[in-house]
Specification:
Helix content: 40-55%
Number of strands: 6
Order of helices and strands: HHEEEHEEEHHHHHHH
Shape: globular
Structural class: alpha+beta
Oligomer: single chain
Number of domains: 1
Length: about 250
Amino acid sequence: MDRRHFLNATFAGIATSVCPHCVGAANAQGLGYVDEELLCGAASSLKASQYTRVLTTGNRNLDNALASEMKKQQQLYILKPAFYIFTDLIKNAFATTRKFPEYPASDGSIVYGIELMKEQLARGYWGGAVVAGVLAHEYGHIFQYRSGYFRKLRKMHKTVKFVELHADYLSGYYIGRKYKESGERVNVRTVASATYDIGDYSYNSPQHHGTPIERTIMLKAGFDLHNLNPRLNINQVAAQAFSTIKKLYFKNQG
């Protein structure tokens, strides 16, 4: 995968893989900070501090592409989380409020497993888009936590569903922005169809993310919002995402 493919990769890959192993919010105890929380990550008993963290993928071109992508996303989210690769064999990617010693002034951390990244990049042309989408979704969780939306959304449902749908919307807006900058065109119907590969029907599970069609609606809504209003800041986008969730799920409430 070359750098251009990563930076300009299209939305179809995003739609099939936003937060591919996320289980939503779970308290991350024992990590050294009272307010520390695992915001999104794969089902695993391991804590963030137990992963083998490194600062490189071992591929300079990929490192540069990842750094460029993170900078692009910082322009929307106005936050600077630390970014780490972990080399353990577990296929996982997650966001955490933890500030590791290397970057004590960071806005939390995004930790991405090299095994998961390799698998996603192996998908070919869309591989870079998959990785960019995971980053945008995890970035969204850190923004939620910092802005207060995380707690608010968790109180609205017994599962992590609204937290995830809200992050899907934010990711969709970012992808709309990414497309605009790259000049690439996207078939939204194709994107929507691809999105049905994500989501679940475990309605009573605390880890329920929303059904495939619900996630499709939110991804597309965020994407469409950018087409209509490309100059919104992240707080305006988040407010619109929150309003959309309320309209869809609380129609009969004042």
